[in-house]
Amino acid sequence: MKSILIAGLPGHFATWLAERLPNVAVQVAFGADEAADHARGNAGLLLLDLAIGADETMDALRKLRASAQGAAVPVIVTLEPGERGVDESVLDRLVRELRVERILFHPLDRAELLRTITQMIDVAAQQPVPAAAASPAPAAAPVAPPPPLAQPAPAATRENVSAAVGQLWTRARGAMLERVAVLERAARATADGRLNGAMRQQATDEAHRLSGALGTFGLPDGTRVARELETVFGGGRFLKPEDGAQLVAAAESLRRMIESRQEQPAAPAPVATPAAPVPGSSSIPLLLVLTGDPALAQTVRGEVASASLRVEVAGDGDAVAGQPDAVLLDVSAPDATSDWRALAEVGRRFPGAPIVVATARGALPDRLRAVQLGARSFLQKPLAADALREAVAAILPAPGAKRARVLCVDDDEQMLAALRAVLGPQHLDVHTCNDPLHFWTRLGEVDPDLLVLDIEMPHVNGIELCRVVRADPRRRSLPIVFLTSRTEPETVYRVFAAGADDFVGKPFVGPELIARIRNRLERVRG
Question: What are 311's strand-pairing partners?
Answer without folding.
Answer: 287
